[in-house]
Amino acid sequence: MSEQTLSFEAEVARLLDIVANALYSNKEIFLRELISNASDACDRLRYEALTQPALTEGDGDFHVTLERDSRAKTLSVSDNGIGMTRDELIANLGTIARSGTAAFVEGLAQDAEGAGEAKKGKAKAKAKDRPDVTQIGQFGVGFYSAFMVAERVEVFSRRAGEAQGWLWASDGQGSYSVAESDEAPPRGTRIVLHLKKDAKDFLEPARLRDIVRTYSDHIAIPIRLAPDKEDEAVETLNQASALWTRSKSEITDEQYREFYHHVGHGFDEPWLRLHFKAEGVLEYTGLLYIPSTKPFDLFHPDRKHRVKLYVKRVFITDDCKGLIPPYLRFLTGVVDSEDLPLNISREVLQDNPLVRKIKNAVVKRVLTELTKKADKAPEDFESFWTQFGPVLKEGLYEDPDQKDKILPLCRFHSTAGEGLTSLADYVGRMKDWQDVIYTITGDDLAALKRSPQLEGYRARGIEVLLLTDPVDEFWMPAIGSFQEKPFQSVTRGAADLDKLDEKSESKDEDKDEAAEETDAKVNALVSFVRLTLKDAVKDVRSTSRLTESAVCLVADVGDLDIHLERMLKQHNQLDEQVKRILEVNPKHPLIRRLSERIGEEGAGGELEEVAWVLLDQARILEGEPLPDPAAYAKRVSALLEKGLG
Ligand code: ADP
Ligand code: MG
After folding, report:
1. Distance 191 CA to ligand 2 centre (A)
2. What are phi and psi of 56, to 5 degrees?
3. How distant, in Å, are the alpha carbons of 16, 31, 275, 287 from that of 19?
4. N or C: which end of the chain has fewer CB within 10 A?
């Protein structure tokens, strides 16, 4: 096949444009990315050779080689790994496979702009949560970092077991070429970087040595530096033994950190590191990390954990679903088993009983470690919780075996103060006559705090948990209670505050006749509103839930809670409209005035209008759209006009 020129996918072209032109101070990370890919390629071939030994015949000794040519100003990175076919070159080095990369490219673009501004003296502080180029590996586009240092990149590759070799080449300007090549290595890939003028320092052995030790020492295969002149000897730059097999005392924090960057493509500091060796019936080593910040794809539906499974140091898969449960999908790292058969196929791994045993043991270790953190370093634990609490909570209904371990770890906002609270602490603060845990769910903490449904509880000093994660709607019904105290939503069912008042004996002296008369009038108003609104609501009733607002909407006991209904609708999982109960506050001046007017001559027509306005007000407070905003505006205008006249 003759040479063909192809265009990069639009997003790749944009990424290359930024990467090639922005001034970065940490360009050396390109080498980390290329070595990481070379090592992955060797891992993949080693795995394929388990079932097809012929693939590595004659060359079973994997390595990465760096070669520099000072005269041609090229640096090359070669591996004898799996290599790529023509189609693979096009798919892997011309398009972007992973979702979420757009956000990364956007962040880089803004940064590049920011750098320009800075030069003009209009420096703006870099947004802290904006991705930077060192994170490129995390977004599955690490290869393209080569264009930070090279004006032209050539990828010579030959897939293991194939006769034909290929050359992929590009100057990063929108297109690349692919052609047959006789210069490809016998097996694997050689990437030749034609260094830019300002990147010549990557030809210096000292610089290369330094970069490899900093970023790639943990790579399990040798990284060799080939001599430039004939009189020098090949030098191995890294320790070349799998990091997790070394003893803890021999591993520095930097090495642990770089391994974390490599294995999980994480760029942040790990929040927690767990390095353990299990011996006995089950023999395995684990080196696991919890990141300190949320990976960008934590809530993507196809997000998987990032724990790689090895068997006796041979990489098997990074997609063993049975190894880590989804509610721990923030974990990254390695589990290396001594007991699993090496020739196990990836497909049957998920249901393998040994894998299940390892999973159970790993889950236990992680939860135990989290419990320790929560007890000994509560503030530090909260920083974990704010990042990953919503994920961990999925375990409450997904893994009934662990719920008793997970529930005490859960932290919540509440009406009691600004900070987070555990359920045990909430229960400790409960009034002695209180027998349920009050909750309210919504999307947004600030809005929740303003909910009218909280008024009566707040006035009585009763604490309500403020729940803002979608998952809260699912685990609460599944768990039901904590320490035998059921969870109860304050936006569903009748308010039990009168009952509480009796229990707390803080109730005013017995009702006098005047009060009973008022009650009767409020009842009449309630009946009137009910008659007027008919099918628009499920019921109308007087409530002790409110102190400041005149009205609110609540769900009936057996119905979907209001927030859950809204969530299901947003996800198109519900089309019917659940009818709500309109509650009125008998102590509110407006309701009192209206009650007085009930039965007055000629009041009926106007009160009907008011009844509709009250319902719409309750909808607005609830954040629900009005079915007929024009009618609402018209009514309010008419009533205002009347009031002013
Ligand atoms: P990632 O490594 O996260 O997948 P990269 O941009 O670094 O993203 O690499 C893209 C893809 O190109 C890799 O997934 C791999 O399939 C392929 N690739 C890159 N370098 C090599 C190599 N040296 N040998 C074989 N395949 C490679
Ligand atoms: Mg990579």
Report:
1. 13
2. -110, 10
3. 5, 15, 36, 33
4. C
The pLDDT tens digits for 518-555 are: 788 899 999 999 999 999 999 999 999 999 999 999 99
Instruction: Check residue 505 and give its pLDDT.
Output: 59
Cα of 30 from ligand 2 centre, angstroms: 10
Q: How far is the CA of 627 from the centre of ligand 2 (A)?
A: 52
Closest by CA to 282, choosing from 242, 335, 238, 320, is: 335
pLDDT value of position 510: 55
Structural domains of the chain sorted by starting position, each given as residue range(s) with its CATH number in brackets: 4-239 (3.30.565.10), 268-376 (3.30.230.80), 411-490 (3.40.50.11260), 513-644 (1.20.120.790)
Q: How far apart are CA 97 and CA 197, in angstroms?
A: 31
- Are 381 and 374 in contact, with CB atoms under 8 Å apart? yes
Residue nearest to atom 3 of ligand 1 (CA): 140
pLDDT of residue 643: 86
Average pLDDT in the chain: 90
Q: Which residues contact 95 (CB under 8 A, 6 or more apart)?
A: 8, 9, 12
Q: Is 155 in the pocket of ligand 1 (CB under 6 A)?
A: no
C-alpha pair distances (Å), 574 with each of 88, 472, 564: 43, 18, 10
pLDDT given for residue 114 in this prediction:
67
548 alpha carbon to ligand 1 midpoint, in Å? 61
Task: Determine the residue of 8, 9, 33, 37 to mutate for testing ligand 1's pocket, defined as the one with the most ligand atoms within 8 A of the Cβ atom.
Answer: 37
Ligand 1 mean position, distance from CA 154 (Å): 14
Q: Is 81 in the pocket of ligand 1 (CB under 6 A)?
A: yes
185 lines ligand 1 (CB under 6 A): no
For ligand 1, atom 10, the nearest C-alpha belongs to: 92
Q: Where does the pLDDT of residue 117 fall: very low under 50, low under 70, confident under 90, or very high at 90 and above?
A: low
Q: Which residues have CB under 8 Å from 529's CB, separation 6+?
A: 540, 582, 584, 611, 614
pLDDT at residue 132, rounded to an integer = 81
Read off the pLDDT of residues 211-238 as tens digits, 9 standing for 90 and up.
998 889 889 999 999 987 766 789 999 9
Q: What would the mean pLDDT of 307-332 be, rounded to a whole number?
A: 92
Of residues 349 and 363, which shows the higher confidence score? 363
Q: Residue 301 phi/psi, 5° resolution?
A: -60, -30
Please tell me if the CB atom of residue 317 comes closer than 6 angstroms to any atom of ligand 1. Answer: no
582 token code pair: 């309109």
CA dist., res. 218 & res. 238, Å (int)? 7
N-terminal to C-terminal alpha carbon distance within the chain: 89
pLDDT of residue 124: 46
| The ligand 1 atom nearest the CA atom of 38 | 23
What pLDDT is recorded for position 134?
Answer: 83
Q: In the structure, what pLDDT confidence band is assigned to residue 110 with cuts at 50, 70 and 90?
A: confident
Q: How many angstroms separate the alpha carbon of residue 275 from the centre of ligand 1?
A: 28
